[in-house]
Amino acid sequence: MKKQMDKLKNKTTSNKKIIVFLVGLFLIGLIAGSIFITIISKSDQALVKEYIKEFVNKADKNKLNYLEALKNASLSNGLFIVMVWLLGFSIIGIPIVIFMYFSKAFILGFSLSSFILQYKFKGLLLALIYFFPHHVVNILAYTLILIYSLKISFILINSIIKKKTISFKAIMNRYLIVFAVSIGMVIVASLYECFVVPFLIRNLIGFL
Questions:
Q1: Nearest to 49 by CA among 33, 64, 36, 37
Q2: Count of H helices and E strands in the chain?
Q3: Residues 144, 92: Cα–Cα separation, whole Å
Q4: Do residues 89 and 155 touch, judged by C-beta distance below 8 A?
């Protein structure tokens, strides 16, 4: 156990700069998304409120299409992981994956603030249910695959600059494992989001 913990600690230390950058980027995206809802026009705010209200009402009355929601969530999250994984093999993929990561944070911040705008104090509880724990799992999966994607892109850049050959075997084995783990994480998170979250929202609405 100690050996595994030391290995994890070493991995974290070696990727410290990338992790700090991604955490900072995510927080900026989250804050930007939260603020954006307050600066859009009243008509756009009304549309967002109506969408949130419709979602909560469907969850409350158990009228959501769970399988359709699962398909959409799995495709959205899975496609993100696949695209980031593939873009890791290119240099031009670096700004693209960084923008994708920021967009995920922005959308999440926008969604959380929309719940609060619509339901005030109740919205805080709804936002908490909407966020935890499945979106935390998604964020960890996004961050994990992005760390390795950026590392491989940097290795490619370094090899081009220094004209070194790369042994892709060891890199690919680890990268495939990270890919599989990330996909597994987002699938579990999607299942929770589509089947458990509506149940919790329904019971919270009834309680309040």
A1: 37
A2: 8, 0
A3: 20
A4: no
Structure-block tokens of residue 8: 């994890």
Query: Would you place residue 78 in the very low, low, confident or very high pLDDT band (cuts 50, 70, 90)?
Result: very high
Give the pLDDT band (50/70/90) at residue 16.
confident
Cα gap 85→140, rounded to integer Å: 15
CA distance 84 to 103: 13
Q: Is the pLDDT of residue 66 over 90?
A: no
121 φ, ψ (degrees, to nearest 5): -60, -40
Is the separation of the CB atoms in 151 and 18 below 8 Å? Answer: yes
Of 205, 196, 207, 171, the C-alpha closest to 69 is 196
Residue 61 CA: distances (Å) to CA of 97, 103, 157, 175: 38, 31, 54, 43
* pLDDT tens by residue, 131-141: 888 899 999 99
Helices (H), 40-92: 42-60, 66-87
Q: Are 182 and 139 in contact (CB under 8 A)?
A: no
Say if CB 81 and CB 182 are below 8 A apart: yes
